[in-house]
Amino acid sequence: MIPIETDALFAIPSGITQIPSEICDVLKTLEGSEQRSGKTDVFNVLDEYPNVKRDITDIFSLWINSVLCTKEQKWAMTTSWVTLNPSGSNMVTHRHFNCMYSGVLYFDKVEETHPPLEFLSPLIDHSSFLLDTPIEERNVFNTDRMLAPISEGRMIFFPSYIYHGHPDFKTSGTVRKSFACNFIPIGKYGRFDSTLNTQWMTQ
Fold first, then answer.
1. Secondary element (H or E) of residue 23
2. Cβ(37)–Cβ(92) under 8 Å?
3. In what order do the strands lie in the sheet with 154-159?
């Protein structure tokens, strides 16, 4: 057999990190909205906590600029909200618009019954064929979804166009809590006729 080396043609970055407990303690005091079909009511929970907003944005910026090799790029957090799920209902699969990257932080206690965050492959819509790969044999090249385990203090960053959600679960009395936010690049980015500088919008 002639050996064939397998490589990723393109790759989608996701980041996983442990957020300091001081940040999580602040988030525990914020107003949350009970999950209803993936919707919440308040989308600016960090506006009154600029230091926490800056710290999370800095953590994200260091990671994404390292991955994309854009060390001079600046980023801003747009919306931020806390979702509460006391009933065990599913999180409807959805994506985020008007942003480039998103983050989800599990700032409070996580029970074994709380399901992981589930990401759907954006490649599903680009293929006309469906092969039946056994679940135990799935990997990054053949799976249609990826699971991101959750734990207290864990934050997951991912491109906002990725559809995500979680299934129903049996609640054991502990509310499944999560903080989410979105990010956009700011300042000057792009090149040539595709250049944008967000400062133009303030002049």
1. helix 21-27
2. yes
3. 15-18, 154-159, 101-106, 176-186, 74-85, 33-34
In the numeric block, the tokens 């129903």 are attached to 168
Give residue for tokens 């009154």. 48
Q: Which of 56-65, 122-131, 171-180 has the highest mean pLDDT?
A: 56-65
Measured CA to CA, the distance from residue 178 to residue 97 in angstroms comes to 19
Quick: pLDDT tens for 119-130: 999 998 888 888
The amino acid at 150: I
Domains of the chain: 15-126+140-187 (2.60.120.620)
Q: Is the pLDDT of residue 39 over 80?
A: no
- Of 171, 128, 154, 137, the closest CA to residue 21 belongs to 154
**Cβ atoms of 196 and 142 closer than 8 Å:** no
Q: Are 203 and 77 in contact (CB under 8 A)?
A: no
